[in-house]
Amino acid sequence: MVYMYRVLLPALLVGILFWACDEAEGPTLTNSGYHYIIHTAASGPKPDSSDYVLYHMYLRSAAGPIYTTRDSRPVQARLSGALEKARDGRPEEFGFLEVLPHLGIGDSATVLIPVGHLAPEQRAPVIGDADTLYFDVAIKNIRSEADIAQFQEERKERNNAAIRRAGISLQALQEFQTTYQEQGLAMGLDSTDSGIQYRHIRVGEGPRARNGMETEIYFIAALATDGTILDNGVVEGQPLVLPLGYNRAFPGLEEGIKLMREGGSSIFVLPSRLSHADRKPDLIPKGAEMIYYVDLVRVEQVE
Length: 303
Description:
The chain has helices spanning 2-24, 79-88, 91-94, 145-183, 251-257, and strands at residues 28-29, 35-40, 52-61, 64-68, 75-78, 108-114, 132-143, 190-191, 197-202, 213-223, 229-232, 240-243, 265-270, 290-301. It is an alpha+beta fold and 303 residues long. The chain has 2 domains: 2-143, Chitinase A, domain 3, CATH 3.10.50; 161-301, Roll (Chitinase A, domain 3). The strands form 2 sheets. Strands 1, 2, 3, 4, 5, 6 and 7 form a 7-stranded antiparallel beta sheet that branches. The longest helix has 39 residues, at 145-183. It is elongated, with a radius of gyration of 26 Å.
């Protein structure tokens, strides 16, 4: 029942809005001749042709959803390039982009594309017997060329910082692994009842991580036996976003994170049953312990 409302209610609203638009001023058309309806108008500035527009798109038919970007990052397109693609490419495929110049940040619109305008190879089986496709577009942000240049410079600096961080983290992990192999329990590591051994390299000063919170971590995973690196999320420059309490990670890693505070760095020795659980026999010997180096960079309560 909930699914039916999710599918039918948006279509009904579009129909009502389209009827209202037709009664008042007549349907609004893109350059390619497709009807569109603006749902929200925030009266903010519209993009210039040289600007980059970040938008979410939701493609659906009366039968239900087909494709959406709502669960991922917004699409980023330079307006001049988007319009050129709509004009000189295939208008039946990219004509919805022609609505972008009419929308500001926070605005949304629906473009109606008759399925009959699509070439046979473009009619995916999921479309079914639908007569019309609905492209819902919502503008998340507008960036100038200067904004993009600054963003790229900041990303370059973040990548350089990640490389520096990776070197420090990798050295710490390798030194720990060597000492662990030589001394084992004689290292005097802290331990949990579940069997995790750990050492806090740096104690954070922020909030403690716990269930119901969203965390961001940089981590390196290696075999405890010989230090073989199996995963290095530090060097990629993008932290792993990990909500706690939802079984999104190995139980040992999640338990270890909950021993930390924001801003801290720790090393954990996880028994097999709390890490990979022998699920990668081609890479990890059966029963092998894993060492995780973890930087906890953000802890935030999920609303």
